[in-house]
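Format notes (please read before filing issues)

Several people have asked whether sequences and structure tokens are stored in separate files. They are not. Every record keeps both together, in the order shown below: the sequence lines, then the token lines. Line labels are part of the format and must not be stripped during preprocessing.
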Amino acid sequence: MAWTDSRMFRRTLQNAMNNTVAFDWDTDAILVALYNNSATPDKDATTDVLTGYNGAASAWVVANEVSQVGQWAAGGVTLASAVVDVATSAVVMLVGDVTASGSAVPFASVYGALVYDNTMASEKGFSYNYFGGTNTVTNGTFTVVWHANGIIRFTL
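Then the structure lines:
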């Protein structure tokens, strides 16, 4: 099994702290792409290409992606209402609305998602999120309900 947990990429934090990438999580196009169990997430990826959507030799290549016309678009769907929440004094987190597909058709073998910035070159990944095992829709809408603690969370 390739998926075991959810993580933020260390590369994302490095880019933000070194100010080498101007992330704007409130206004950039943040997408959620779905993946099968062939993807092997690596929080320690050392380059933007290895964290980005369809980056050469990364886990996030199109061959590992799960998409279906009319259900979940190739490349992912937009994370609606993405915002950096600083509501409490000790926490900063990226939150967003529930992310749902467009229509009700069969959809199978989804293990997790890549959350990435579609506005930037290299379509840099922020995090990967494991769904706890294989997920399938037989007659309904595939929906990702984000945890109340955020998609990415920093405790200060």
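For reference, the curators noted about this record: The mean pLDDT is 87. The two ends are 33 Å apart (CA to CA).
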